[in-house]
Specification:
It is a single chain. About 25% of the residues lie in helices and about 20% in strands. It is of the alpha/beta class and about 400 residues long. It folds into two domains: about 280 residues, Vaccinia Virus protein VP39 (Rossmann fold, 3-Layer(aba) Sandwich), CATH 3.40.50.150; about 120 residues, DNA Methylase, Chain A, domain 2. The strands form four sheets. It has a ten-stranded mixed β-sheet with strand order 3-2-1-4-7-9-8-11-12-10, with helices on both faces. A two-stranded antiparallel sheet has the order 5-6. It binds S-adenosylmethionine. The site of S-adenosylmethionine (SAM) has 21 residues, from helix 1. The site of S-adenosylmethionine has 21 residues, from helix 1. Keywords: Methyltransferase, Restriction system, S-adenosyl-L-methionine, Transferase. Its EC number is 2.1.1.37. GO terms for molecular function: DNA (cytosine-5-)-methyltransferase activity.
């Protein structure tokens, strides 16, 4: 099977970099990146800087792309936002999802281009959204994929639990057509056995034999009468791992089984850091922001309530993996990392290169004409490249067997 790839929501290219680290033989036939509401398209430019100018990398709102112009490909990849996936009936016209919701662009591409394999990334909240109808959005997504004859596996992966220097937890979703060779290995006694023995994630991200005893695994029939039915009525507590195949869903709270080396925040720090990253005289602000607090507040409707939040370690310990990096990393913000520099013993922010290292990008990957603020932003949006590299290794094997 040709290793042709389409990369949607490419950002600065985390999926491509990860897959190319696993093998140079992936052929990226089309990719797309467009930053809403911004004139300068820095992430798009950064991608071109790193992978080369090409008319295959397109800077247009994906909602406006006629999906039939996308070249055929066997693997579709992308990290996209968690939005409202509900659908409504529009009478004779069929059904409609909310405007601008990016899942529908992915669905449209799948319908038109029919790739055999799909690898997606999202925040783990996707599995539980929305709060008033737990699991509806992921249910809609699974139903869409089921309608197109895909089986789907998902796994919430905390990069630090597999040796990486950042505690970044994201759900990865792998889907494959039910007529691929890979899907044949699903002829197992049970979906549980499959997940533990042959699952896509199991080889590179091993799990323990026993699942988390606090959460009971569940298997259900995935019966529905169209997408509107799922959107209106489906609710389910998806756990961190699972599989959907031909009308059945199995989910389980798995536990990582990792025995390799563990990286820490201290391992990725730069030496001789510029003075501008050091804090000067603003310690009280940081102390307050990072500290625990209880504040009496009044809502717009006049209702009194207590806002409370716990303390965040300050400074951030460098002998452990870091907390998750957010898009707001450049601002003076409670979740911004502050470390005590081991060389100078003074407090400072992380540098853009350190943020790149936390995600496993090459040094200065984003140092391509964009502002420092946007460099931090792009890293808050991106993924841990090493995770995709590992998935890339598994994909190389799978593609070989499809030949
Ligand atoms: C979660 S980020 C993905 C980051 C990427 N995986 C990386 O490694 O940098 C989602 C990306 O989708 C882009 N995006 C948002 N809306 C879009 C749209 N309507 N069309 C195309 N891209 C869009 C954002 O600019 C952002 O770069």
């Amino acid at each position: 099977m040709e290793r042709t790839v389409c990369e949607l929501f490419a950002g600065v290219g985390g999926f491509r970099l990860g897959l190319e680290k696993a093998s140079k033989d992936w052929d990226f036939v089309w990719s797309n990146q467009w930053e809403p509401k911004r004139k300068s398209q820095d992430a798009f430019q950064c991608y071109i800087h790193n992978f080369g100018e090409s008319d295959r990398h397109v800077n247009i709102d994906i909602n406006k792309v006629d999906k039939s112009i996308i070249p055929n490909h066997n693997l579709l990849v992308g990290g996209f936002p968690c939005q409202d996936y509900s659908v409504a009936s529009t009478g004779a016209k069929g059904i409609q999802g909310k405007k601008g919701v990016l899942w529908w662009s992915i669905y449209e591409t799948l319908k038109v281009k029919n790739p055999s394999f799909i690898l997606l990334e999202n925040v783990d909240r996707l599995l539980k959204s929305p709060s008033k109808q737990r699991g509806r959005d992921f249910g809609v997504m699974l139903a869409c994929l089921n309608n197109l004859n895909y089986s789907v596996e998902w796994r919430v992966i905390n990069a630090a639990e597999y040796g990486f220097a950042q505690r970044r937890r994201r759900v990865f979703i792998f889907a494959y057509k039910n007529d691929t060779r890979f899907s044949e290995c699903l002829e197992y006694n049970s979906l549980r056995e499959y997940l533990h023995k042959e699952g896509f994630f199991q080889k590179e991200f091993p799990i323990q034999d026993n699942s988390n005893p606090k959460k009971i695994p569940k298997e259900i029939e995935f019966d529905y009468n169209g997408l509107v039915d799922v959107s209106d009525n489906f609710s389910f507590m998806f756990l961190n791992s699972g599989i959907m195949r031909k009308g059945k869903i199995y989910t389980e709270e798995t536990l990582p089984d990792f025995k390799g080396d563990v990286k820490t925040l201290g391992d990725i720090l730069e030496k001789d850091v510029d003075e501008k990253y050091y804090l000067n005289g603003e310690l009280d602000d940081w102390d307050y922001m990072k500290g625990s607090k209880r504040i009496e507040r009044v809502s717009k409707t006049g209702h009194k309530y207590t806002f409370s939040e716990g303390a965040i370690a300050f400074p951030d310990p460098i002998d452990k993996p870091s907390r998750t990096m957010l898009t707001s990393e450049s601002s003076k913000n409670r979740s911004t990392h502050i470390i005590r520099d081991p060389q100078t013993n003074r407090l400072r922010k992380l540098t853009p290169v350190e943020c790149e290292r936390l995600n496993g990008f090459d040094d200065n990957w984003t140092n391509k004409g964009m502002s420092e603020r946007f460099r931090y932003f792009c890293m808050g949006n991106a993924l841990v490249v090493g995770l995709v590299e590992k998935m890339g290794n598994a994909l190389v094997d799978i593609f070989k067997k499809e030949e």
